[in-house]
Amino acid sequence: MGIPIIQFVIDLLNEAQVKRVVINMHHLPHIMQEGLKKLDFGNMELIISDESTQLLGSGGGIKKAASYFQNSPFFMLNGDSFCNIDLQSLAKWHGLLKQNRKNLLTMAIMPEGENLYTEIFTNKNTYQIKKLGASVQGRPFYSGISVIEPEVLQNLPENTAFDFLKEILMPQILLGQAYAYLFQCPFIDTGTPELWQKAQTFVTNALENNSLPPVWAKRITAGRPLMVPYFS
Question: I need a labelling partner for 190 at 20 to 30 A (CA). Which of 60, 85, 206, 232 fits?
């Protein structure tokens, strides 16, 4: 449809009145920068976290990007999937949990996935995340969206590659400081060519049936497709 996946993620942030977005990049940095400049960021400030000389991994990239948020909590979203989550409600839930518990990381959890995802086990009464399970279908899974407190990253190394799961998420689960925000809405994953094709079919059919979330339909039918590379 001529619209990069990441534009839908940007639109979601705009809907939540986010003021600044940091995007990390590594592969083909000059092409990526030119592509990003052609996207519609609304009134948001764009900051590029350049990893072209050293790929920092799923955790090290977060550590570097977090330095631009002035020691404040921030949203983290994957660039190769998107959904119609209410980010303001997620932020309010995170703040509410933080008032009563030692909550430093809130993960947006969906009740069941059509594809294989790591199962998330949550205490149904406290919403505390208890453990991670195997990759299965039809069980609660992490949407790739979360709120992270800067305290989570304090003791992690600068400019070093490390993994989000091993070095950020698992320690917080073991310390009892990771919680869930449960929600349900259309979820689009484009992490593989097969999933991308499946997403194309879903969006095309939903657009024809007028069942797309309004913010997605508005972007697709805006009449000015963004002819830039498809990237995550």
Answer: 60
In a 3-state reduction of DSSP, which class is residue 200? helix
Both structure tokens of 29: 């940095």
pLDDT in tens, 124-138: 999 999 999 999 999
- Give dist(CA 162, CA 59) in Å, integer: 5
Helical H runs in 16-141? 29-37, 57-66, 87-100
Beta carbons of 90 and 181 less than 8 angstroms apart: yes
User: Block means of pLDDT (10 residues each) for the chain, length 232 residues?
Assistant: 85 94 89 89 93 92 93 93 93 93 94 92 96 96 96 94 95 96 92 87 87 86 49 36
- Per residue in 76-105, pLDDT (tens digit) is 999 888 899 999 999 999 999 998 888 999
List all residues 6 or more positions away from 22 whose beta carbon is below 8 Å from its beta carbon. 47, 48, 49, 65, 68, 69
Domains and CATH numbers, the chain: 5-220 (3.90.550.10)
Task: Sort 174 into a burial class: Cβ within 10 Å, 0-12 / 13-18 / 19+.
Answer: exposed
Phi, psi (degrees; rounded to nearest 5) at 81: -150, 160
* Two structure tokens written together for 67: 């330095």
